[in-house]
From TrEMBL, chains A, B, C, D:
Lineage of source species: Bacteria, Pseudomonadati, Pseudomonadota, Gammaproteobacteria, Oceanospirillales
InterPro entries with a match to the protein in the record: dCTP_Pyrophosphatase, DCTPP
Name of this protein: Nucleotide pyrophosphohydrolase
Domain of life (superkingdom): Bacteria
GO cellular component: cytosol
One MF annotation (Gene Ontology) recorded for this entry: dCTP diphosphatase activity
């Protein structure tokens, strides 16, 4: 654990792996299946936002907020399991992707625009 | 940075926030919009797996593997941005969700079964 | 064909089936895989709307509009193929679902509200 | 209605529009929001297939089969509403897309292959 008692990303991945192993669920966890499970959780997350406008989505009711927090956790969990199953380092992949995006979206060209880099 | 030179989860979230701020993209990043962006990235991830069977999804071609790694990063990035925008601690949410799942899926009842907890 | 020369829903399903058979693609088209393909197409559709607000999504640029139209077609195509593979009549399923929704969402209670029927 | 008493695609779209109008729901139905609702329904559909292998997905348990049929209807309903809101003819779009795919995937080159047309 880190100094403040919170688990790190790596510790959570280990905790998850232990949880899955204890239940012998790895037989269900092909990357294909985990990708589908990830999709399902994202679908549940989206349902909380579909009828809200952008502004309302910033200020969720407490009950919705708690439900959203639990859906975010589910999405993160399947993402960790998927990366683990594929033996990929998620944080390293993110770091590399930000490097790449810094090249594709130079700050001075991309400022205030939502265009794809191919249109900058 | 951690001892081995890799960025931690929190450091990556800060790096992302800096990246977004520099480009003045936060105006586009309502939770609603970020949820949609997350969905789009998951859709791109799924496309790599849709015609593979479970076994083939374990042993990706190098080119597909690299593409999948980059999609995983994109999903993780939008998830971090969404949690950040909602001012939620993703890792804490995951930790809490595993606690909850330990209660819902006791190892001795859930072993080797993919049923929902309501059917255990 | 119908009187005005347009193909009916059933004729399009037949046309699609013929297209698939000619290419011997049915081996890839398990319901599981078709569901994933459907997800992927929905993800592509979502990407066109993610940074627009509700109002802008009503008045798409001509180029976006054409792209959206083609994504809608892809979603419809996989939905038809999936229903066909499962030997289900999509139109009948829709008709039944509207019947059901009329019971769950009485017009006088549901008017102007986006709540789930369980909250009406 | 058609000869056999079943509603046609166009009649179902009209029935749906009437259902929505009676409840004054069109205020929620921007294309952006309908796209999200579509995503949510696809997520629910996917959940029925995520732990099944391809073969099992062909032979659903009766209860799952009925649930899947209702999810297919929900996906079709939001797709119809979205096309209606955008004033697009879904069936015509499908017909045009099949024309296009016939060009991109010549039967003799695409036979038995799941590759994207750019790789044929």
């Amino acid at each position: 654990m880190s100094v403040d008692g919170m688990r790190t990303f790596g510790e959570l991945q280990e905790r998850l792996q232990h949880f899955v192993d204890e239940r012998e669920w790895s037989r269900f966890h092909s990357p294909k299946n985990l990708t589908m499970a990830l999709t399902g959780e994202v679908g549940e997350l989206v349902e909380h936002f579909q009828w809200l406008d952008g502004k309302a989505s910033e200020a969720l009711e407490p009950e919705t907020r708690e439900a959203v927090r639990r859906e975010l956790a589910d999405v993160q969990i399947y993402l960790m399991l998927l990366a683990g199953r594929l033996d990929m380092d998620l944080l390293e992949a993110v770091d590399d992707k930000i490097d790449e995006n810094e090249g594709k979206y130079p700050a001075d060209k991309a400022r205030g625009r939502s265009d794809k880099y191919t249109n900058l």
